[in-house]
Design goal:
The protein is an alpha/beta fold. The protein has two domains: 4-69; 110-296, Rossmann fold. It is 45% helix and 12% strand. It is built from twelve helices and nine strands. Strands 1-2-6-5-4-3-7-8-9 form a nine-stranded mixed beta sheet, sandwiched between helices. The longest helix has 16 residues, at 128-143.
């Protein structure tokens, strides 16, 4: 467990250089405490973190500037909570990731992090077929108090969040940027609703905007938070399939809605079924499958 000074140091480092937990551990193996960071050379830091010397030099300068900034107070004043990996609020399932986030940032109801979660994802170009599928899948999951996790993207993610809210359930949206930004802009009202009544989550400090490579990284958190994954639609080349890869890598059930054979948005999902994913067309099937798994262990 970190003391308040160590939390301050960690939040300062994460603000200027949001390194994953495996890199932080490598750094702490070399310098023991973050207090020592100001005393090692940029060359040493570059070697430890395996980064460019110029990056290490900038990191050191920025860390020294940020070291005494009261980040925890600042975040709380702006309706944000920074949750380091040592906190009791940090979801333990994320620690199973090889590159777990060192800190997560949340807005909204933190208690949702401790409840059972299922991810519902799909194509950004989803058709009405996703909406029809979710109408059968979500109600039984919500009745069993599962929190529905998705990525606030256009298409299936938006449908999953909106329908969960309409059905009186709880949802967590994982975004690929800091809270000073919002992507996509079309989901501004939905994001505000989630912050007010549900939970918004990211691994990025507030100032960091959306970058193309942030979204595959975000997908591992969607999977890491959840005990299982539900996929409605996905083309053969889809970011959705990155999330399913993460889930399968960690031995999680992947439930897939079979799709029309002529639909481009079902080619990826139908291929997942060919590779051994579990076909599903009703949420009760998921509930029973997960209950059966729990009974075995």
């Amino acid at each position: 467990m970190l003391n308040q000074k160590e939390i301050q140091q960690l939040l300062a480092l994460h603000y200027v250089y949001p390194l994953p937990l495996n890199k932080l551990q490598r750094l702490l193996c070399a310098i023991q405490t973050l207090h020592e960071l100001q005393f090692i050379s940029a060359k040493e830091l570059a070697q430890i973190l395996q980064i460019q010397l110029q990056t290490a030099q900038i990191l050191k300068v920025n860390y020294n500037k940020a070291a005494n900034t009261p980040f925890k107070v600042y975040y709380e004043q702006h309706n944000m909570h920074a949750i380091p990996f040592t906190s009791e609020n940090y979801p333990k399932s994320l620690l199973q990731l090889s590159d777990a986030p060192t800190v997560i940032y949340v807005q909204g109801h933190i208690d949702l992090l401790q409840r059972q979660k299922i991810a519902c994802i799909g194509s950004r170009n989803s058709t009405n077929y996703s909406s029809i599928a979710l109408q059968s899948i979500l109600p039984p999951l919500i009745a069993e108090q599962y929190v529905i996790v998705s990525g606030l993207a256009k298409g299936a993610d938006t449908l999953a969040h909106q329908m969960t809210i309409e059905l009186g359930g709880s949802t967590i949206a994982v975004v690929g940027h800091g809270f000073a930004h919002l992507y996509p802009k079309e989901n501004k009202n939905l994001a505000a609703k989630i912050v007010s009544e549900h939970l918004l989550l990211t691994e990025y400090p507030p100032y960091m905007g959306p970058k193309k490579w942030h979204f595959p990284m975000r997908n591992r958190i969607i999977s890491g938070l959840s005990c299982a994954l539900v996929v409605t639609e996905a083309a053969m080349k889809s970011g959705t399939l990155i999330t399913t890869d993460h889930a399968l890598e960690h031995g999680k059930d992947v439930f897939v809605v079979p799709g029309p054979i002529h639909s481009e948005q079902s080619k990826g999902t139908n291929n997942l079924l060919k590779e051994g994913a579990i076909p599903v067309w009703n949420g009760q099937q998921i509930v029973e499958e997960l209950q059966m798994f729990q009974m075995k262990y």
